[in-house]
Amino acid sequence: MTTPGTTAPNPPGAHLPEHPDHLWTDAEPKKVYDVVVVGGGGHGLATAHYLAKNHGITNVAVLEKGWLAGGNMARNTTLIRSNYLWDESAGIYEHALKLWEGLEEDLGYPILFSQRGVLNLAHTEQDVRDSVRRVEANRLNGIDAEWLGPDEVAKICPIVNVSADIRYPVQGATFQPRAGIAKHDYVAWGFARRASEAGIDIIQNCEVTGFVRDGDRVTGVHTTRGTIAAGTVALCAAGHTSTLLDMLGVRAPLQSHPLQALVSELLEPVHPTIVMSNAVHVYVSQAHKGELVMGAGVDSYNGYGQRGAFHIIERQMAAAVELFPVFARAHLLRSWAGIVDVTPDASPIVGATPYENVFLNCGWGTGGFKATPGLGWAFADTVAHGRPHPLVAPFGLDRFVTGALVDEHGAAAVAH
Amino acid sequence: MQLIACPWCGPREETEFSFGGQAGVAYPEHPASLTDEQWAHFVFFRDNPKGPAAERWVHAAGCRRWFTAVRDTRTHRFLTTPELTS
Asked: Per its UniProt record, what Pfam families does this chain match (chain B) (predicted)?
């Protein structure tokens, strides 16, 4: 019974927007398309959107083997930041961040992009040196970045334990105020809605089972829903890219690993920002609805099963409780895993393949979500013009032969 | 966590082992004669099958010896009991 003079509290999520009446059309495959995008996750849908919006190419199919955005797009921890060390990475991730900042208007759809900032904690002297270096590199690239001492860390995120008596005391942190989180499902639906409106076919339950080859061209794809002819093929299959490339006889330095994430039960707002720690390996944010969202590194072995080992998340939880003693009594609600394709230099592979009309987008490993609009923009341009867009040109498959690697291991502020 | 059968020690917890990647990748016989592309493939390129894969594992927190095992990457389950290898 409600006591007079009080009102019942709103249930969690009551402030979130209602779903629209119409999202996208579940299309039947046609016989032929100008562009076939393989993979209906964030990157595939964003590529389709920018093909229509920036290049006027709308005779496009997005083929999804399961349901729309049901792979890594449904499983990531939604962190968006651009504080990467190297110029090449800064270029693509900062382009993405700028697009994120206008994406709600562009898509005409709420994506709940919340620029609450990211703290990357430093726990050792070497962490401090690397972090300060990264702050300077970010600033030179026009990216917002600050170096904060432990007291300033505590001001931004009071629940972080900055006392000196823990195993790895917080020596400071880098802070990117423009970083944030977004609602991953809404992002996918927003892109899908716009692409569908533009006349692009989003075809679900349509798995690519082979390619129709003619010399150094691919003229179509065999799928579980029939053969579809294609002018150009754009691969956006993330963790399953190797299975497609094996069909094409193309080798790429990809290893697929399970990456786990987990959420707590719904809690009152306690965590105002995003905290990442490389040394005490965990990253934590609080979703709009109230769950603490956490993740860490991949399971060490290769795997395509969308689940991981318990000892990995046990270690994550230990790290989280060390840094946030207030979490000690929070209950874990559920955990899951996605399949991420990791490259030797922890940077993506985007661009040409040995086939003149097949373009590759893969290898984003643990960090693909934040790149979604930036990659979609640059990959659509790559597909439309048949050559790599300048922002993705450094990420070609040929860099493993030339040696021009973009080594973001650790340098990107998170271990992979 | 699963149990992994070390050929010397028997079944032990997964946390005692480390994954060593694809089995059967031999150091090039004539390294000096390799092209850049052949080097790239030796250093960086590995199989990434969805299904059974022959892999190197080491019982790092046990006998510290290496062995080859076949594991299904879809289920993460070990398909063969590793055999003693020298």
From this structure: SoxD (PF04267)
Nearest CA distance, A172 vs chain B (angstrom): 32
Answer for the pair A33, A201: CB distance below 8 angstroms, yes or no. yes
Residue A134 near residue A145 (C-beta atoms within 8 A): yes
Q: What is the CATH number of the domain that holds B63?
A: 3.30.2270.10
B60 domain-assigned = yes
A292-330 tens-digit pLDDT: 999 988 999 999 998 899 999 998 899 899 999 999 999
From chain A, the residues in CB contact with B55 under 8 A are 301-302
Range(s) of the domain holding residue B20: 3-25+39-80
- Which tokens hold the place of A144? 């917002």
Cα–Cα distance, A11 to A80 (Å, whole number): 27
Contact A305 B15 (CB under 8 A): no
Residues in chain B: 86
pTM for this prediction:
0.94
CA distance A19 to chain B (A): 35
* Strand residues in B1-86 grouped as ranges (E): 3-6, 10-13, 18-22, 52-58, 66-72
A192 and A200 Cβ atoms separated by less than 8 Å? no
The ipTM estimated for the assembled molecules is 0.94
CA dist A416 and A301 (Å) reads: 13
